[in-house]
Design a protein that fits this description.
The chain is an all-alpha fold. It folds into 2 domains: 115 residues, Endonuclease Iii, domain 2 (Orthogonal Bundle); 140 residues, Orthogonal Bundle (Endonuclease III, domain 1), CATH 1.10.340. A two-stranded antiparallel sheet has the order 1-2. Helix 2 crosses helix 3, helix 3 crosses helix 4 and helix 9 crosses helix 10. The two termini are 38 Å apart. The C terminus is likely disordered.
Length: 265
């Protein structure tokens, strides 16, 4: 009998987690209604998300509460250079996301007839949506694929051919992939390993090699590890409350357990 590889085990776990997320009955209905009625709020949140998705989402919702949720209110605030708008954008201004916000509002007005949903409703497939998203200032492959992944997974938007949805190569994915032995660890620099320096393409193509039909299906399982701070630079933090889904076959976890056992004895 053929031995199951680590890649096969990872893929099975990722598929199960993706399926559970898709079938979750307690999907946030408020967010779903927002997407249907005010798609620009979702899109703008994705565009300005540079480090913390909650900060991006809450910032855009606060703007909606100030201006009103209709897109024309957003547009008027941008065109009229509303000073209160700049204050509300302050939490996301450190990486120029405030500029990307304003440029995106103008682009939605001029190119999508004030309806952000046309980006995915008129799309031929996932790659078409990603292409359109990449045309927005401040949007790279990571944000574009993340946005499409959320649309198809969390909001069940029916888009064809998911082979174009790549994994989002953030620091958590890079670190976890290294610990699992999927890609090479970065070289030590000042006694630290800088996982950010790993080429995004290495992560993307590794995920494609594991599941070419839909590489982005791996994203959610790895994202949870990062969100729950289970897998950190030199620490394996898996516990009863936040167990790493990959711990049973992760070489790094086995090494950590072995070291703990030796120190106790």
């Amino acid at each position: 009998m053929k031995k199951t590889s680590i890649e096969d085990k990872i893929l099975k776990i990722a598929k199960d987690k993706y399926s559970n997320k898709m079938n979750k009955e307690n999907m946030n209905k408020d967010n779903l209604n927002l997407l249907k009625k005010y798609p620009h709020i979702f899109l703008l949140s994705c565009i300005v998300d540079s480090a913390n998705s909650d900060t991006a989402w809450n910032t855009v919702k606060k703007i909606a509460q100030y201006t009103g949720y209709d897109f024309i209110n957003f547009y008027n605030a941008v065109i009229n250079e509303d000073t209160e708008l700049d204050k509300l954008l302050a939490p996301i201004s450190s990486r120029n996301s405030h500029k990307y916000f304003k440029l995106a509002v103008i682009k939605i007005k001029e190119e999508y007839n004030s309806n952000a949903a046309l980006i995915w409703e008129d799309a031929k497939n996932c790659a078409d949506v990603i292409t359109k998203l990449l045309e927005f200032d401040g949007v790279g492959v990571k944000k574009a694929t993340m946005t499409v992944n959320i649309l198809t997974r969390d909001y069940k938007i029916d888009l064809k051919d998911k082979s174009a949805i790549d994994i989002s190569p953030d620091i958590h994915v890079k670190r976890s992939m290294c610990k699992l032995g999927l890609i090479k660890e970065p070289e030590l620099f000042n006694n630290k390993k800088d996982y950010q320096k790993i080429d995004n393409n290495i992560v993307i193509y590794k995920a494609r090699s594991i599941y070419p039909k839909f590489p982005g299906i791996l994203d959610y399982a790895f994202w949870q590890i990062g969100k729950n701070k289970i897998c950190e630079n030199n620490i394996c933090k898996s516990d009863n409350d936040n167990r790493c889904p990959f711990e049973s076959f992760c070489p790094q976890h086995k090494s950590a357990i072995s070291k703990n056992s030796r120190s106790i004895s």
